[in-house]
Amino acid sequence: MKLRRQNKGNGGLYAVWFIILVATVAITRFYGLESSNFYGIAETREIVVNFEGAVEIKKINVTEGQSVEQGMLLVELSSPDLMLKINQISHQLDQLKAQKGVDKSEIQSRLRQLKAEKAAKESELRNQIAQLENQYKINKSLLSGLKSISGNGGYGNAEGSSPMELKIKSLKEELSLCVNPLAIQIELFEKILANSKNPVKIQVERLEQELTLLANENNKLNIYAQISGIIGSVNFKPGAKVSPFAPILTLHTRTPSFIKGYIYENAYADIAMDEHVNVASLAIADRNITGVVIGIGARIVAYPERLRKHPDLQMWGREVVIQIPENNHFILGEKVLITSSVKKPGGVEQLKRLFTPSESVADVLLACKNFLFEEDILPIIPLETQGIEASALLYLKDIDRYMVLSDDTPGNAPLVMLMDSHGRITRETAIAGLEKIDDMESVAEADQGILYISSSLSTAKNGKVKETRKNLVSVQRQGNHFTLVKTIDLYSQLMTHAQREAGQPWADFILGAISKKNLDMEGMMYREGSLFLGFKAPLMNKESVILKIDEIDCAMETQTFKPHQISIWRSFSLIPGKGQLQEGISDLLYFKGILYLTGTPLMKDKGSRSGTLWKLDEATGTPVCLAHFNDLQPEGVASGKEKNSLIICFDQGHKTKSKTCKIKVN
User: What is the model's pTM?
Assistant: First the structure.
């Protein structure tokens, strides 16, 4: 009886354990199902129609939701500035052509006048000479028979002794003196006439080429559909003034071209590139299609609220992009179910992964707690220069472009590349006045449109520091144009000044790096008249170093540093986590009162790339790890176009396209 009572008393406990077991199995099946089946949204390729200059909407030929065919005229724009330029150049051309005809007529008229004058003068003098010579012969003949006149009256004696002979000689000299200057003037005008075509012709050809370019630009004011599709949004009305690169309308394909899905964080390894998956509509049972995984996100992100089973419960997972055939029946924005064809692990392993997530997942969760990625990592699409190795970024608000530097350019040309928010290089321009610069690694924006650009100061593979790798340059920017202001041999000036201040911590740091040939400066920022240099190498007491140069504008002007102008501003250790490699500074950004920096490992595994985004707590001087990137090497960080956003660029080497990523900072 007692045993029965005891078993009866334990019945409630057994029931509780049974409920817990059932709940555990249910949770396991829920997340096990999530590893094989996950949800996504049907999306499409979208084209944004804009124009690179300020324009006025003349006519819009489409409406939202309208179906259009490729080549259809969408928008007609007008540009008063462009028309003004075309009119000005046309007027200049007309003036040059008219001037060309007038100048030629004047020269030809003057030439005819000179030739006539020469001919008249020459004819007059020759007639006088001929008359005198005839008279001389007659007189000489008459006097030859008169013996009463001794010496023939001066005829027939010594040559040139008679007055008539002297007169003839004088007229011949006058002929030479009068005709030769006219001949010289005639020859000069003939040369001018022969060469008068070239300068005017060159000017005319140049203006005609410019007019052709402007006409082509004017033709672009009529915007046609690049693809067949549907108009998404129309943002302006006829007559509206539109600023450069503002989206006028959007155009997307008629059917979705890809699916963006989210796989739960504890199952994120259960999907692979090129894997075939089944994509099924949740609205219509028989509507499904086979897709291929073409992209797997490099981070853990929050699920969109629409895809959560419980909207109030926050879920985290990995983005998966699936390409689907163009001939599909899905609706844009439709929610779909994605089923993987790969066999998934059993229940025991699922339980293990559920309650003991892997270290890499935990690390990413920890890294993502302070910010939210807004979109996928995008490749940088080159314009002309291939093999971009993105090393620095700067957002130029007035032209809505990101300035991109590459640490390797053809022939060490001082190239500046301008990139839009989609990762496309839209313009390449050289810094006027600067012939060459090697290994551009950092850029900082100062006051009044001045930019500072620096090489890495690092030693080449041959053990020497190239002259083109030593410089810090100041550049004046006006819109899309960059002009050299000053250049300083930063490497030599740091060495010379460090020798003078030997014993100071900063000086010993520089002199030690130069002697060991491991100096490498890759980060830079400007703040309140001072320039801050972040060094990837070497370390000082196992810490990364930031030097501060006060009154940098004065140093650029005088080409030297004053005593105590340089100091160590901060030093700290950059180790992302347990078992991870120590990093050196690859870029600096002071944004809204916070110092952000990127780091890359000092020692690299062959073929692997990684790095970290950090935030410095200025009160304590302690760096806080915000995000660690596997397979990506962050080289530059800049403020983003959107509020509270950052842009990071990743250098993936010469043979692989550099990439960018947008980050939302809390």
Answer: 0.49
Count of helix runs (H) and strand runs (E) in the chain:
9, 35
CA distance 100 to 414: 40
Q: Note the Cα 10 to chain centre separation in Å.
A: 74
For tokens 């006060």, the residue is: 550
Could you give the CA distance from residue 354 to residue 341 in angstroms, rounded to a whole number?
Answer: 21
At 545, the pLDDT band (50, 70, 90 cuts) reads very high
- Residue 407 burial (10 A CB sphere; 0-12, 13-18, 19+): buried
pLDDT tens sequence across 8-45: 556 677 777 777 777 665 555 544 444 467 889 998 87
Asked whether 377 and 621 are in contact (CB, 8 A), the reply is no
Instruction: Output 228-232 pairs: Cβ under 8 A, ≥24 positions apart.
Output: 228/68, 228/69, 228/70, 228/253, 228/254, 229/47, 229/67, 229/68, 229/253, 229/254, 230/65, 230/66, 230/67, 230/68, 230/254, 231/62, 231/63, 231/64, 231/65, 231/66, 231/68, 231/74, 232/46, 232/64
Q: Partners of 535 in the beta sheet?
A: 521
Strand 288-302 and strand 316-323: the pairing is antiparallel
Burial 599-612 (b: 16+ CB within 10 A, else e): bbbbeeeeeebbbb
Pairing outcome for strands 401-406 and 415-419: antiparallel
Bridge partner list, 46:
252
Tokens, residue 38 = 């996950």
d(CA 557, CA 82): 39
Q: Strand, helix or coil at 141?
A: helix
In this predicted model, which residue has the larger pLDDT, 657 or 154?
657
As a 3-state breakdown, the chain gives helix, strand, coil percent values, each rounded to 5, of 35, 35, 30
| Separation between Cα atoms, residue 450 and residue 477, nearest integer Å | 6
Is 572 in contact with 623 (CB distance < 8 Å)? yes
Residue 270, C-beta contacts closer than 8 angstroms, at least 6 positions apart? 35, 36, 263, 340, 342, 344, 345
Write down the residue that tokens 């302006």 correspond to: 236
Any long-range contacts for 189-198 (C-beta under 8 Å, 24+ apart)? 189/107, 189/110, 189/111, 189/114, 190/111, 192/107, 193/104, 193/107, 193/108, 193/111, 196/100, 196/103, 196/104, 196/107, 197/100
Q: In this predicted model, what pLDDT tens digit does every residue of 402-450 receive, in sequence order?
A: 999 999 999 999 999 999 988 999 999 999 999 999 999 999 999 999 9
Q: Which amino acid is at 369?
A: K
What percent of the chain is predicted at pLDDT more than 90? 34
Under 8 Å between Cβ of 166 and 150:
no
DSSP 581: P
Distance CA 397, CA 647 (A): 14
Collapsing DSSP to helix, strand or coil, 426 comes out as: strand
**Which residues are paired to 230 by β-bridges?**
67, 252
Q: Which DSSP state fits 157?
A: S
What is the DSSP pairing of strand 288-302 with strand 583-591? unpaired
The two beta strands, 401-406 and 390-396, are: antiparallel
Locus of tokens 């003949």: 141
Closest by CA to 339, choosing from 34, 620, 93, is: 34
Nearest in space to 402 (alpha carbons), one of 480, 514, 497, 461: 480
Helix/strand/coil (H/E/C) assignment for every residue in 448-467: CCEEEEEECCCCCCCCCCCH
